[in-house]
Amino acid sequence: MRYAPAILVGRLTRFAARLRKPGGGSAVPGLVVNTIAPGYLKRTLSGFPQGLVVVSGSSGKSTTTKMLVAILRAHGVDVFTNPSTANISQGLTSALLERADWTGRVPGDVAVLEMDEGHGAVVMQGVDARVVALTNVMVDQIDRFHDSEMVAGMLARIAERAHEAVVVNADDANLERLAAAVGPGVAVHRFGVSAGVLARSPRGLGYTETRRDRLAAGAGVIVDSVEGASAVLRDGAASVHIRLPARGTHYAVDAAAAYATAEVVLGERFSPTTAADALSEIPAVFGRGERVHVRGQEVEFVLVQNPASYQLNVDSIEPGTEQILFAIGSDVRDPSYFWPTDASSLGRVAIVSGSKAPEAALMLAYDGVEIDRVEPDLGRALDDFLASPAPAHGVKTIVFSADAMRRTRAHLGLSGAE
Amino acid sequence: MTLTIAALLPGLQNTNGDAENAAVLARRAEWAGLAARVVRVDSRDDLPERVDAVVLGSGSDASLEASRDILLTMHDELRRWGTEGVPILAVGSGWELLSWGVERADGSSIEGLGIVPGRAVPRSGRVTGDLVVASPRFGLLVGFENHARDYVRAEGSPVGRVRSGSGNGRDSGQEGVVMGAVIGTHLHGPVLAKNPAFADLLLGIMAERAGLEYAPGERAAAVDAYASAAREALLGATRAAASATDA
Fold first, then answer.
1. What is the SS3 assignment for A310?
2. In angstroms, what CA-CA distances link A336 with A4, A304, B15, B90, B187?
3. Is B188 a catalytic residue?
4. PANTHER family attached here (chain A) (predicted)?
5. pLDDT tens digits for B70-90?
6. Chain A residues lying within 8 Å of B229, measured CB to CB
7. How many CB atoms lie within 10 A of CB B80?
């Protein structure tokens, strides 16, 4: 009952926010409740009967969270989870309010939360988690986190909140160091890739520091092999065949992380077959997961945020894709740190656009990519790109930075343009 | 005869893509019809027999000592290349490690290899932004700088005068250091791609030493048009910033 007034105010705020912007989610209700009832988030997160599970790391946390939730639900567990856009404090409180009854209680046996590595340490203050799963440490959003040591430190603060177990990527040297420092009584569980999988990843795994040794058989959940969009996980004596949401070793590693974490959360109730089926039923994703129908054309959106995601997403574009629009906006102040990536697989790009168009064209040209046109005006580039006939095979593909994505959405009248 | 460009410590010293300047040299050589290759040198064992150019990029401060220790195992080669006139492009902390030494903000310091004169000293805050340098030898150089240290005692032989940005700092108005064909600079990232005349000058030195002819290829002309547009955008932005400051 103690939170009923705050919940009521939060609900009214949400109602008002929806009147202003129909269909839109908003962090404002969360902000209001966090202000008038600062203990709400902490208390609610600690109130799930089977505890709180937190997933964090530089990359792959959204996919891992989605996979973990699917496995738990397939086992009949009632799960509360946050949409990946609500992984910081206000958004998280708003997400809880969506599901809360009038006393503020949120139904569910267990909460699985994706936590932003930058905000997680603050959100988690005073909150106990049963299990914390950490995906990796990468140099991510270089302007925000100056170096990987800082990211590792923030993840360590999140991991400190685990009272039962931490689940770590054993190939990531930063996470292994962190695991060596967990408190007494906290178990460490691991996942990783086999030597064979690493050998077949010519660009490595993308972690800031990859450990020299692979996880020994039986020491955790191991990605044994990856073939296109399918993979085999090895868990002790069991070989588990799964289908991935798309081609890519990183999806197999996310699946291993989710599998290992579900095993810890469910204990004896865990069934490898149920887990494999749940993982295999995750819907396919394209590029960064978005295919839209706009102006009579089928278009794939590919978002690049940092060198690691740039490389993964460029690699995931089908070689020979005929029509690509490549737009880098002013959010990339200096594109230098993208130069170590290799975009040669794109072959040809129809239009390079955005306020950093000349620099982007220069980078692509040195990768050996043919460029038909450089058009810094993104609106004009989009109009012309979408007006041209559809490709003979495949779909028109737009690769963009976050700022260019927002401008693209606004120009095309798509939701989420903000 | 294949031109060999050594990218030194590309694992530790490539934070801003500086090591990619090796690939820029190789690409431009190929566009000119010359055979070229990039050899990644992570340790002394990787050193090729013949080296026609060397690129050493910038790394994080956490790897300063580790990088210096590996570079020390190649101290003789670096000295010899410097004396023989092999072009060496060193950027950011890579350049600092080739100097007399690096002084850190906490008062500690790291001894450098002493290949070029001068030393790196702490500045009050990090400087990041566009850097424009007028160089009598390499032309008008544009790029980006991002460093938390100034560079002193390079006054005898800088790369050029700062038109916009900080450069070596300490009110010197200068940027970089040059000794023969050894060049240290704060211009990070693909500086040779953005400044094709600079790249061609280095390629000219490499070709001459190898007994080859270098003239930029046709493809280079098309790609350099993108570089011109990028340069214009950057020079326009710094001019706008300068006139705003004057107003």
1. helix
2. 52, 14, 9, 16, 11
3. yes
4. LIPID II ISOGLUTAMINYL SYNTHASE (GLUTAMINE-HYDROLYZING) SUBUNIT MURT (PTHR23135:SF7), MUR LIGASE FAMILY MEMBER (PTHR23135)
5. 999 999 999 999 999 999 999
6. 357-358, 361, 374
7. 12
Q: B226 vs A147: CB contact, 8 Å cut-off?
A: no
Question: pLDDT tens, A323-354?
Answer: 999 999 988 888 888 898 899 989 999 999 99
B10, two tokens: 């590309």
Give residue for tokens 């939060």: A10
Number of domains in chain A: 2
Q: Output Rg (C-alpha) for chain B, integer angstroms.
A: 17
All residues of chain B having their beta carbon less than 8 Å from the beta carbon of residue A363 are 190, 193
pTM, full prediction: 0.70
User: How close, in Å, is residue B115 to chain A by CA atoms?
Assistant: 26
Question: Annotation-wise, does B219 bind a ligand?
Answer: no
For residue B78, the Cα-to-chain-centroid distance in whole angstroms is 15
- Judgement on whether residues A249 and A333 belong to the same structural domain of the protein: no
Q: How many CB pairs under 8 A join A and B?
A: 65
How far is residue A235's CA from residue A263's CA, in Å, rounded to a whole number?
10
DSSP string, B114-154: -SSS-EEEEEEEEEEEEEEEEETTTEEEEEEEEEEEEEES-
Interface touch B226/A337, C-beta < 8 Å: no
Pick the CATH number of B2-246 from 3.40.50.2000, 3.40.50.880, 3.40.50.300, 3.30.70.560: 3.40.50.880
